UniProtKB/TrEMBL annotation:
Pfam families documented for this protein: Exo_endo_phos2 (PF22669), Syja_N (PF02383)
Protein's recorded name: phosphoinositide 5-phosphatase
SMART domains in alphabetical order: IPPc
Enzyme Commission number(s): 3.1.3.36
Keyword tags: Cytoplasm, Hydrolase, Protein transport, Transport
Segments forming domain SAC: 172-549
Amino acid sequence: MSVRIHLRDHPHRAIALVSSSHVLVFRHSPTSTESIPSASVQSFQSHSSNQSPAAPRCIVEFSRLDSINLGDYRSLSTLPVKGTLGLITVNNDVFLCVVSAATRVATVRPGETVQRIDSVEFHCINSSDYDHVLNDEINPYSTDNLSQQDGFDYEPNQTRREGVVEHPCLALKKLLSGGTFYYSTDFDLTNRLQDRPIDASTFDLNSFDDGFLWNSYMIQPLINFRSHLGSHEKEALDASQILTSAIRGFVATMPIAAPISPARGTALSGLPSTLTVISRLSCRRAGTRFNARGIDDDGNVANFVETETIFWTPSGLCFSYAQVRGSVPIFWEQATGLLPGQQKIQITRSPEATQPAFDKHFESLEVDFGSIHILNLLSKDKAGEVEISERYRYHVRHSMLNNSVEKGTSGAFELLKLTEFDFHAETRGPTGYEAASIIKQIIRESAESFAFYLTEEVDHPSEELHPGAVGQDRPVSRKATVVLQQEGVFRTNCLDCLDRTNLIQTIVSQMALEAFLGQRNERARQDFWLRHSSLWADNGDALSRIYAGTGALKSSFTRSGKMSFAGALADARKSATRLYINNFTDKTRQYTMDLLLGRLMGQAPVRLYDPINDYVNSELNKRALEYSASRVINIWIGTFNVNGQSEGTSEDLSAWLYPTSEISNQQPEIYVVGFQEIVELSPQQIMSTDPGRRLLWEQAVQDTLNERADSDKYVLLRSGQLVGAALSIFVKSSVLGDIKNVEGDVKKTGMSGMAGNKGAVAIRLDFANTRLCFVTAHLAAGFANYEERNRDYRTISHSIRFQRNRSIDDHDTIIWLGDFNYRIGLSDEKARKLINAGDLNTLYDNDQLNIQMVKGNAFRFYSEKPPAFMPTYKYDRGTDTYDTSEKARIPAWCDRVLWRGDNLRQTSYNAAPLRFSDHRPVYATFQCTVNVVDESYKENLSRQIYEKRRADVAGLTANTDLDDTDEEEDLIGYDAISSGLPPASSDTRKWWLDNGMYAVGNLRYTFTRLKFSPFFICLSSFLIAARSLLRERQHPRP
């Protein structure tokens, strides 16, 4: 979408970004924050609680194009801009950064394009001093060798040279225009394919990964502003594509002609496939080669890059494989030097002080990727690299991830594995770098277990929302379906994580592609692999230029598979250039990166406020009862570990689903049914999911429900399965219109995340305007493994993600159900005696889950009604007798229902007498108050409040004239500190005078205009009267 940039010079400077339908206007606010009572300014409380009081402020307004008069504006550029990267402050001047030129460099999938930023411009919002300084359209020069004469000598507190106006953003412009920044207006470029919703047609700015968002500091004020807009304004702002989110690294697509493509069927269609490489460089420990090494206390490492290889075919297949690289995650430094031997490595912290940061780093990787296989390519001969490797081994051995692996698992399921591969020693022989390919044999087992991410477009019958459709009447749509997920990641490093690392990652990427093609009985031709190698060579060069200042060494071999004499000479030249850049220019490059990321001492972010919209939102909240109402619905929750018994599908389930006449008559609107162990958890079963058993159980449940239902039948809304765990939601057909945004996700926790014998299935939905989330979980088994169960809960709670990056906690109502496997901490003999005596209170006092919840170690802030039924595990099948086998397991309440939400009221909690499993099924019923909003009425009310407020402030917005800066107070909107109190006063408005109107008396003369406050007039009168009274007392009249 085209965006134009306009400027208004008088009477007050303002900049407008104009789309085809809307306008985003910025105007600097010179009013100091000290002049405004902070307790009464609603806008500032939400934007600046952690910011410096002196932070520059701007008024911002987003409006429809037809409501803004652009007659006083002039165009700043003959060409449209691509969007804005945000706002930044330099030397107390506020600059708006816009993308002025960009080139399309990649098409990942149809409709998903990536643009490379070629040029940016910085426009000052509060001053015209720089309007004609930085007006070159595109920077034609490389940013690899920037020096002080290029503008990097500017410091925030440095005064401008007399007679010469030097643009303070020159260095930032050259950095951002250097061809290393990318953005997309079609999809979330900060997340890999596997972490993006498969069926999302749009993306939310709030779901972006801040770790890869390089303009996060500049764009955050605008993201905060966006969050306070109404839903329609927010959608309009997103549709305008004004806000741009950029990553740094490398992105490129290479089309694969049909005759060359290894994918079956492309030759017949004649359409090309695409091969794409995306590298995302983290900004959390960003820096140049000798300025950023090792790890920080938050677990972030230098030169951390996530690289994704994507292969798409016209038939709808899409392959994705991700790898990461990053500096060795310990605290170490390396000094610069003009000779290689002078670059001494120093480890700066003890092992004990390093381990917490080390664990943070790998725990974060484990959450994102699962198992981690480290490929350490450091030398075994160089003293500094040997010392780092020794420390690396120490921390891997002492990692909490390795200590958390389930007992009895084989090495194939290690959560953190280390392979040391001395790259230089292995490639020293006559075959040279070709010998590096022997690493394939070393890592093949992990590569096969990690698999890859694969989606395929298939025809889907849309049966969930069309319960009456049968057979060929069902509508069919072509949708992408997840076939396989990547379950682990290779983390590769050398010293710089550039040259050696890139060559090995190229080999790993090829292995993953070969595995994908091999499963389909396909093979790639040499031409295909040459294109693959060329993309990876370009990737290595780009990442090397960012970190070290030159292209990658060994790129000649990566590109062609051979090391030529010319390539060796090129490597020597690059090494010499690196020495110069690292010693003489890296300091200024580091400074510019820190400026961009907002990490300089004393650097303050820009603060935005939109007074009218803030006021409207505040008023809407106060008047919520006018456009919203509440409604009570009934929800039935049930969980059942069926112990792999398929014959239960033929049993009568009504004792569980309709246990009382009240529930039968009540006909709950929602039935949430969770199963565990619907298949036998054999070694073959736990690695895959067979939906056959789930379908049988769903049919059995639905048949039982509809046997007693009236004409309003139950339909299956959505279901999900993870090996033996399944979650199915049935709703009455009459409430389908109230339900939207139904989404699901799963998380494996068995065998350290490798297997699905343990884990969770989650489904969320919106019922009217209330967000509900249901989670069924099967946690770690074993009497003493309550800490592992706690860890499983935390992993599930943190890892489950729905569209727009919503987590479990981002819901109004949350209900967990399942076999949580918490036991009763008593001996078998004592537990059975208490059961026989009916002393459930003592049993509950010793229940592991109850104890862990009280301590805050698991399910914090959740509630459970104390069980008034006997422990549900473990029975002899077909009887009411607890376990009589040799193991004699202690009876326990393994099967539970927990909930959280102020809108929930639990009405029952019990077990049902179904005896075909060694567990008893458990159920709970709830009354849930949902919020129903009349969106049409709310929209009309919002428009009325907006227009009235606009009239009250006489149109004083970012786009209009202000005669006096003090009058800006009237834009902000003052609220009462507490209910029942009047709104706070200001220097110009007093609530006790004239109904809050102006409290300033104006005396007009022909030559001046004076202002007197009535307060001072009254005070003067009082002092005069007091003085007269005192004189009379001192000198009384006769």
